[in-house]
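Posting this for the archive.
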Amino acid sequence: MSNEQIKVRFAPSPTGFMHIGNTRTALFNWLLAKKLGGKFMLRIDDTDILRSKKEYEDAIREALVWLKLDWSEEARQSARTERYKEVAQKLKQEGRIYACYETPEELEFMRKRLLNKGLPPIYDRSGLKLTQAQKEEYEKQGRRPHYRFKLEDGEIFWNDLVRGECRYSEKNLSDPVIIREDGSFLYHLPSVIDDVDFGITHIVRGEDHVTNTAAQIQMFEAIGGKVPSFAHLPLLTGKEGKLSKRLGSLGVRELRAEGVEAMAICSFLAKLGTSEAIEPYYSLDELAQSLDFSKIGRSQPKFDEAELKHFNTRLVHNLPYAEVKSRYDISESFWNAIKGNIKIADDVKLWKSICQDELSPKIEDSELTNKGAELLPPEPWNEETFGSWIKALKEASGKNGKELYHPVRLALTGMEDGPELKVLLPLIGWNKAQKRLKGIKA
C-alpha cells in the first residue's frame, strides 16, 4: 500500500464536549496519518438527533484547530441516511439483516434468564424463525421491528496493531442490533459503510470497540469492502486506576483555559501508557515520527491532571520564542529571561505588566526604599544585580528578612508577592526602579 492511500478518520459524536479520551483518539489517528504521509478525515457521527448539538460540534472543531490536528476531508452521517438505507435494503434481501419483534423488557428477561443459568447472554435468533403470519400478528399488536445483522458461523480474527492477534468465535457473539424500532441506525453499520465509501485504511479507537470490531469485520465483508487495519488503544483511567467522572468531563476547553499548552497535551497523551519516557515535544511532525504502536502497553494508563500540569510547566520552560511571539507582544530577550520562572505561558502577562506598565508603588518603609534608590548600581544589570544590591541595602539599613524584602517588593511591583525580584529587576530597569523606590508612579 502506497503512502498516498493511507487514510484515517476521527469520528466524534457531537453529544457532549470533547473530553481527554476523545482527544487521545483524535491525536493517535492524526499522528498515524502524518507519519505515513496519509490523510486525516473528520466525520461527525450525528445520527443521535436528540442529543447531537451544534455547540458540541463547534467545540470539537475548535479543539482540533487549537491542537493543530488539521483535517483534509469532512463528512456528517446525518447527510448520508439514504446511503445507509440503500445498503441495509440490499443486506435484507441477502438475508444478512433480519427483523426482530422482542420488546426491551422481553430482551432483558431473556438476558437475565441466560445469566442465571450461567450462560452468556447471547440472542437466540428467534427473529429468524418467525413466519410471515407471526410478523403480521406482531404488526397488528402495534409492535415495530428492530433489525439485527446476522453473523456467519466461524472464527473472526485480525492482527491488531496494539493488541496483537485477536480471535472471536461467532458462537460467543450476539447478532448486533443495527436499526432501531423507529428506523434510525445505530453506530455499527453506518460506520462501516462510511469507512468503505471514504476509503479508510486504518481505524484507531478505544479498546471498548474490540467486540464491535469483530462484528464489523463481517459487515465490511458483507458489503464488499476491504477490511481496514485496526488499532485498539487501552482506555484511560483516573489516577486511582479506575474510570472517574472527572476524566469523562475533562477536556481541551478546560485545560486550555487553565493555561495548558496544546503541545503539552499532545506530547503527554502520545507517550502516556507507552514504554517511552514522557518528554516535551515542540512539533507535531516530530511527535508523529516517534509514533510506534508496538510500544503501547496493554494495561490501562492512569491519567493524572496534576501530572499533566506539572509536565506543562516543564514544556513552557523550554518553549521556543517563535511559539509565543504572536501571542504576546514581548521581545525574545524578555521571554528568555522569564520563561524559566513561570508555570504557564500566560504568566508572561503579569511579568510584562510589572516591568513595562506604569504602576503606583506602595511605600511601606520610605527610609528603607529611599536608601535602596541611592544604592542602585548603574546599568547594565543581570540576575546577579539584585543579590549584590539587596546585600548592600541590608548592610546600610541593618534590616533583614521580611522587613527588608517586603517593602522592596511592594515598592518595585506594587504586589505582596509575585515573580522573583532577581529576574524582575533587570527587566524593570534603572529609571523605573529609581522612581518606584522613591514612591513615584512609573
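The chain has a mean pLDDT of 94. Residues 20-35 form the longest helix (16 residues).
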